[in-house]
Amino acid sequence: VDLYPGSEHIARARYQLLMSMRRQMLGCDRDQTITEETLKTAHELTALPECAAYQDEIQKIIMDCNLLLAERELYVANFY
């Protein structure tokens, strides 16, 4: 993405970056920094017109991130 920003495959590269971030997300009992970064990246991709073909998958990832962050809050509240 950084080396070839004008490539015709930039949308797929951005989507693959998001998918690799998604695979690194940990469970609700672990640090959620990568989940927050994934959510931020997904929101950035929704604003890009070249990623329109992947909008359904991106929206699903956003929902998954939000659910995981909510589970984390419930986990912490349950602990205390």
Concise overview:
This protein is an all-alpha fold and 80 residues long.
What does this protein look like?
The structure is a single chain. The chain is mainly alpha-helical and 80 residues long. It has 3 helices and no strands. Helix 1 (10-23) packs antiparallel against helix 2 (33-46) and helix 2 (33-46) packs antiparallel against helix 3 (55-79). The longest helix has 25 residues, at 55-79. The protein is elongated.
Radius of gyration: 14 Å
Q: What proportion of the residues form beta strands (DSSP E)?
A: under 5%
Give the integer mean of the pLDDT values: 94
Structural class label: mainly alpha
By DSSP (H or I, 4+ residues per run), the number of helices equals 3
Number of E-type strands:
0
**How can the largest sheet be summarized?**
none
What assembly state would you assign to the polypeptide chains in this entry? Answer: single chain
Keywords:
80 residues, mainly alpha, elongated
Give the SSE layout.
Layout: H1 10-23, H2 33-46, H3 55-79
Helix pairs in contact: 1-2, 2-3
